[in-house]
Amino acid sequence: MKIKAPVSKNEQLDVSIMDLTYQGMGVAKVDDFPLFIENALPGEELTIQVTKVAKNYGFARAISWKSESPDRVKDVDKTYRQTGIAPLQHLAYPAQLKFKQHQIAELFKKAHQDVEVAPTLGMENPTQYRNKAQVPVRMIKGQLETGFYRQHSHDLIPLTDFYIQDPAIDAAIIKVRDLLRQFEIPAYNEISDKGVIRNIMVRRGYYSHEMMIVLISRTQKIPSQAQLVDQIHQALPEVTSIVLNVNAKKTNVIMGNVTRVLYGKPTIEDTLMGLTFAISARSFYQVNPQQTEKLYQMAIDKAGLTGEETVIDAYCGIGTISLALAKHAKQVYGVDIVPEAIEDAKVNAQKNHLTNVDFFVDKAEDQMIQWQASGVKPDIVVVDPPRKGLAETLIESTAKMGPKKVVYVSCNPATLVRDVQLFQDLGYVIDGPIQPVDQFPQTPHVESVTVLVKK
Ligand code: SAH
């Protein structure tokens, strides 16, 4: 029998909000049928209008409030919610930290796991923290604009203050935008697949203040390229690297495969944990440097190194965790799938005079099988995978190598819970509380460190 949804599209009704989803939407239930509502907080009572009804859930928008949460922040700029830049800015920061702790705890509870989750380690100033921006460039009414897409769309909303980005980066984007306008360089048009500049990426070293500008272009060359590049580095004295990335495909993927240095070096440098890192345009680098130092310190402390251990750092990026651990271990092996990241990692080992680290380009899941087959016996394995989590084969080969500890740095609690369960099936148990660290204030992203030990 088909159960009919208890609400219909456009219907207005009064609800109370009982929860927040992992995307930061309020949840109300009508006869057990969940409705998801943007900008609604737990405990609030409001009138809503249903906007979409699916089989087992629906969406609604808030119309008016009967009561508001004490954790609601007033006077927020709604652009940051519309663009998805800061979907949680309407929730007071201490409540954001509790929300993240609660997210992890709830997911483990649903999996019938009794684990302790420590309070989220937060930031003192939870805005303007990002060291990297990646903004789309489009023509609006004949003028080149930079900003961010309205959520679930490709409509550009022009923005000059990105709220969670280093203000020096915001200023650089405006400068580059103005120069693109001045040289009449056209923005890319997704519909006609014509035009030139698709995106601008900016990275700035938190300690070094070195800045990299990446111009992502549909074309192999930008009109007035030499003058443009000259003007950018004259206008922005912190710029030590200007890079062209060519992406000629009709795709949502931001970067293409060709990168060419137009000015300065192919990398910028920054420091973390007192170590120096070179970072190239294509390499992953944590976006919140202040919190990253806390996160890494946590991972190092939890690894409990004495100087005698062999360590594997899977998903090592440019070798940040690997090198931080190498100072306290006998030997470290790192693996990442991005060749540029591993090139950076090797340079970084040299820069920091660390000779007990070896880096490999491969899928972590494949490299782990090889290490296991060739008899590598790690004492500690650190994993820091992307949102999709670990491949089962990686967990299996890790368990076969039998490290006494696995330190799991996770950016997605849903895959963390799934992966931890497989580790448990293979003889590992969670040791101590899971520690969330807030890498992405004002957003619902949850980062955490979990330690698993061999039984
Ligand atoms: N530990 C690093 C990087 C973490 S981000 C740091 O803290 O900076 C995740 C990394 O996983 C990225 O560098 C990405 O290139 C890499 N990656 C993604 N899929 C992978 C795979 N299947 N195998 C190995 N590395 C992968």
UniProtKB/TrEMBL annotation:
Cited InterPro entries: MeTrfase_TrmA_AS, MeTrfase_TrmA_CS, NA-bd_OB-fold, SAM-dependent_MTases_sf, TRAM_dom, U5_MeTrfase_fam
Cell inner membrane found in the keyword field: no
The keyword Transferase is assigned to this record: yes
Catalytic residues of the enzyme: C411 (nucleophile), C411
GO BP annotation list: rRNA base methylation
GO molecular function: rRNA (uridine-C5-)-methyltransferase activity
Coiled-coil ranges (or none): none
Keyword field: Methyltransferase, S-adenosyl-L-methionine, Transferase
Residue ranges occupied by any TRAM domain in the UniProt entry: 6-64
Binding-site positions, S-adenosyl-L-methionine: Q286, Y315, D336, D384
Family classification: Belongs to the class I-like SAM-binding methyltransferase superfamily. RNA M5U methyltransferase family.
Alphabetized PANTHER family for the sequence: RNA M5U METHYLTRANSFERASE, TRNA (URACIL(54)-C(5))-METHYLTRANSFERASE
NCBIfam families assigned to the protein according to its UniProt record, in alphabetical order: rumA
Full protein name: RNA methyltransferase
